[in-house]
Amino acid sequence: MKSLSCHVVALLSILAITLSLTNASDPSPLQDFCVAIDTPADGVFVNGKFCKDPKFVTVDDFFKSGLNKAGTPNEKTGSVVTLVNVNQIPGLNTLGISIVRIDYAVNGQNPPHTHPRASEGLVHFQANVGKYPAVAFAGLSSQNPGAIVIADTVFGSNPPIQPNVLAKAFQLDTRTVMDLQAKFKK
Ligand code: MN
Fold first, then answer.
1. Do residue 56 and residue 101 come from a single domain?
2. Span from the CA of 41 to the centroid of ligand 1 (angstroms)
3. Do both 131 and 82 map to the same domain?
Protein backbone atom coordinates (compact mmCIF):
# COMPACT_ATOMS: atom_id res chain seq x y z
CA MET A 1 0.00 0.00 0.00
CA LYS A 2 2.83 2.31 0.93
CA SER A 3 4.58 1.73 -2.38
CA LEU A 4 1.30 2.45 -4.26
CA SER A 5 0.94 5.85 -2.57
CA CYS A 6 4.60 6.55 -3.36
CA HIS A 7 3.84 5.85 -7.01
CA VAL A 8 0.81 8.14 -6.92
CA VAL A 9 2.84 10.94 -5.34
CA ALA A 10 5.61 10.44 -7.90
CA LEU A 11 3.11 10.49 -10.77
CA LEU A 12 1.42 13.65 -9.48
CA SER A 13 4.83 15.31 -9.08
CA ILE A 14 5.77 14.51 -12.67
CA LEU A 15 2.41 15.81 -13.93
CA ALA A 16 2.76 19.00 -11.87
CA ILE A 17 6.18 19.65 -13.41
CA THR A 18 5.34 18.75 -17.00
CA LEU A 19 1.80 20.14 -17.40
CA SER A 20 1.29 23.85 -17.70
CA LEU A 21 -1.67 25.97 -18.62
CA THR A 22 -1.44 27.88 -21.88
CA ASN A 23 -3.53 30.86 -22.74
CA ALA A 24 -3.57 32.60 -26.12
CA SER A 25 -6.07 35.25 -26.97
CA ASP A 26 -6.40 38.79 -28.18
CA PRO A 27 -6.59 41.54 -25.56
CA SER A 28 -10.14 42.28 -24.41
CA PRO A 29 -11.81 44.99 -26.45
CA LEU A 30 -12.19 48.37 -24.76
CA GLN A 31 -15.09 49.48 -26.94
CA ASP A 32 -17.96 48.00 -28.97
CA PHE A 33 -16.08 48.16 -32.26
CA CYS A 34 -12.98 49.66 -33.79
CA VAL A 35 -13.13 49.33 -37.56
CA ALA A 36 -9.54 49.05 -38.74
CA ILE A 37 -7.99 51.54 -41.12
CA ASP A 38 -4.34 51.80 -42.15
CA THR A 39 -3.51 55.49 -42.02
CA PRO A 40 -5.78 57.81 -40.08
CA ALA A 41 -5.19 61.54 -39.80
CA ASP A 42 -5.68 61.38 -36.03
CA GLY A 43 -6.85 57.90 -35.05
CA VAL A 44 -6.64 55.65 -32.04
CA PHE A 45 -4.34 52.63 -32.32
CA VAL A 46 -6.00 49.44 -30.95
CA ASN A 47 -4.83 45.81 -31.45
CA GLY A 48 -2.31 46.84 -34.10
CA LYS A 49 -4.82 48.82 -36.19
CA PHE A 50 -6.13 52.36 -36.18
CA CYS A 51 -9.84 52.90 -35.52
CA LYS A 52 -12.01 54.48 -38.14
CA ASP A 53 -14.05 57.42 -36.95
CA PRO A 54 -17.33 55.73 -35.85
CA LYS A 55 -19.31 58.40 -37.76
CA PHE A 56 -17.96 56.93 -41.02
CA VAL A 57 -18.43 53.23 -40.22
CA THR A 58 -20.73 51.40 -42.66
CA VAL A 59 -22.23 47.92 -42.90
CA ASP A 60 -19.58 47.03 -45.49
CA ASP A 61 -16.93 47.30 -42.78
CA PHE A 62 -18.45 44.14 -41.28
CA PHE A 63 -19.15 42.18 -44.45
CA LYS A 64 -17.27 39.92 -46.84
CA SER A 65 -18.83 37.82 -49.58
CA GLY A 66 -17.37 34.89 -51.48
CA LEU A 67 -16.88 32.23 -48.82
CA ASN A 68 -19.40 30.13 -50.71
CA LYS A 69 -16.88 29.80 -53.54
CA ALA A 70 -14.06 27.25 -53.60
CA GLY A 71 -10.48 28.44 -53.89
CA THR A 72 -7.99 26.65 -56.15
CA PRO A 73 -5.87 24.11 -54.21
CA ASN A 74 -2.15 24.52 -54.80
CA GLU A 75 -0.23 21.59 -56.27
CA LYS A 76 2.20 21.06 -53.41
CA THR A 77 -0.27 20.41 -50.59
CA GLY A 78 -3.49 19.90 -52.50
CA SER A 79 -5.31 22.50 -50.43
CA VAL A 80 -6.05 26.20 -50.32
CA VAL A 81 -6.95 28.35 -47.34
CA THR A 82 -9.24 31.33 -47.88
CA LEU A 83 -8.80 33.75 -44.98
CA VAL A 84 -11.42 36.05 -43.53
CA ASN A 85 -9.67 37.93 -40.78
CA VAL A 86 -9.24 41.59 -39.83
CA ASN A 87 -7.45 42.23 -43.11
CA GLN A 88 -10.54 41.18 -45.08
CA ILE A 89 -13.20 42.47 -42.64
CA PRO A 90 -11.83 45.58 -40.90
CA GLY A 91 -14.76 45.53 -38.46
CA LEU A 92 -13.29 42.37 -36.86
CA ASN A 93 -10.62 44.53 -35.24
CA THR A 94 -10.76 44.04 -31.42
CA LEU A 95 -13.54 41.44 -31.72
CA GLY A 96 -11.17 38.47 -31.35
CA ILE A 97 -12.58 36.23 -34.06
CA SER A 98 -11.89 35.17 -37.65
CA ILE A 99 -12.88 32.37 -40.01
CA VAL A 100 -11.30 30.41 -42.83
CA ARG A 101 -12.45 28.17 -45.64
CA ILE A 102 -10.20 25.29 -46.71
CA ASP A 103 -10.74 23.45 -50.00
CA TYR A 104 -9.08 20.09 -50.55
CA ALA A 105 -8.22 18.45 -53.85
CA VAL A 106 -8.11 14.62 -54.01
CA ASN A 107 -5.52 13.45 -51.44
CA GLY A 108 -4.94 17.07 -50.45
CA GLN A 109 -3.99 18.11 -46.93
CA ASN A 110 -3.65 21.22 -44.82
CA PRO A 111 -0.09 20.66 -43.55
CA PRO A 112 0.51 20.43 -39.77
CA HIS A 113 0.61 23.92 -38.29
CA THR A 114 -0.12 25.94 -35.18
CA HIS A 115 -1.86 29.29 -34.65
CA PRO A 116 0.23 31.31 -32.22
CA ARG A 117 -2.58 33.65 -31.20
CA ALA A 118 -5.65 31.42 -31.35
CA SER A 119 -7.53 28.21 -30.74
CA GLU A 120 -9.39 26.78 -33.73
CA GLY A 121 -12.63 24.86 -34.20
CA LEU A 122 -13.02 23.06 -37.52
CA VAL A 123 -15.89 21.37 -39.38
CA HIS A 124 -15.10 19.17 -42.38
CA PHE A 125 -17.59 18.30 -45.11
CA GLN A 126 -16.95 15.47 -47.50
CA ALA A 127 -18.06 15.11 -51.11
CA ASN A 128 -20.69 16.94 -53.13
CA VAL A 129 -20.01 20.29 -51.50
CA GLY A 130 -18.56 22.62 -54.06
CA LYS A 131 -16.06 21.81 -56.73
CA TYR A 132 -13.60 19.71 -54.71
CA PRO A 133 -14.09 16.48 -52.73
CA ALA A 134 -13.79 18.11 -49.31
CA VAL A 135 -14.19 21.50 -47.73
CA ALA A 136 -13.74 22.75 -44.18
CA PHE A 137 -14.79 25.86 -42.32
CA ALA A 138 -12.95 26.96 -39.21
CA GLY A 139 -13.51 29.58 -36.55
CA LEU A 140 -10.49 31.01 -34.75
CA SER A 141 -10.32 32.95 -31.49
CA SER A 142 -8.30 35.86 -32.87
CA GLN A 143 -8.80 38.65 -35.38
CA ASN A 144 -5.45 37.64 -36.93
CA PRO A 145 -4.43 34.20 -35.66
CA GLY A 146 -1.17 33.77 -37.61
CA ALA A 147 -0.02 30.33 -38.79
CA ILE A 148 3.25 28.51 -38.23
CA VAL A 149 3.54 25.64 -40.72
CA ILE A 150 5.84 23.08 -39.12
CA ALA A 151 7.66 21.85 -42.27
CA ASP A 152 8.21 25.38 -43.60
CA THR A 153 9.51 26.56 -40.24
CA VAL A 154 11.79 23.59 -39.56
CA PHE A 155 13.16 22.88 -43.03
CA GLY A 156 12.76 26.31 -44.63
CA SER A 157 14.21 28.50 -41.89
CA ASN A 158 16.56 31.29 -42.93
CA PRO A 159 19.32 30.96 -41.90
CA PRO A 160 18.92 27.18 -42.16
CA ILE A 161 19.16 24.87 -39.16
CA GLN A 162 22.27 22.63 -39.35
CA PRO A 163 21.30 19.43 -41.26
CA ASN A 164 23.03 17.17 -38.73
CA VAL A 165 20.92 18.69 -35.93
CA LEU A 166 17.68 18.05 -37.84
CA ALA A 167 18.89 14.57 -38.86
CA LYS A 168 19.23 13.60 -35.21
CA ALA A 169 15.99 15.32 -34.15
CA PHE A 170 13.88 13.65 -36.84
CA GLN A 171 15.84 10.37 -36.98
CA LEU A 172 16.72 10.91 -40.64
CA ASP A 173 19.98 10.77 -42.52
CA THR A 174 21.65 14.09 -43.31
CA ARG A 175 21.15 13.72 -47.05
CA THR A 176 17.37 13.41 -46.60
CA VAL A 177 17.36 16.52 -44.41
CA MET A 178 19.30 18.47 -47.05
CA ASP A 179 16.83 17.31 -49.69
CA LEU A 180 13.94 18.57 -47.52
CA GLN A 181 15.74 21.87 -46.90
CA ALA A 182 16.15 22.34 -50.66
CA LYS A 183 12.39 21.74 -51.12
CA PHE A 184 11.37 24.27 -48.46
CA LYS A 185 14.07 26.88 -49.11
CA LYS A 186 12.53 30.33 -49.54
MN1 MN B 1 -5.52 25.90 -38.66
1. yes
2. 36
3. yes
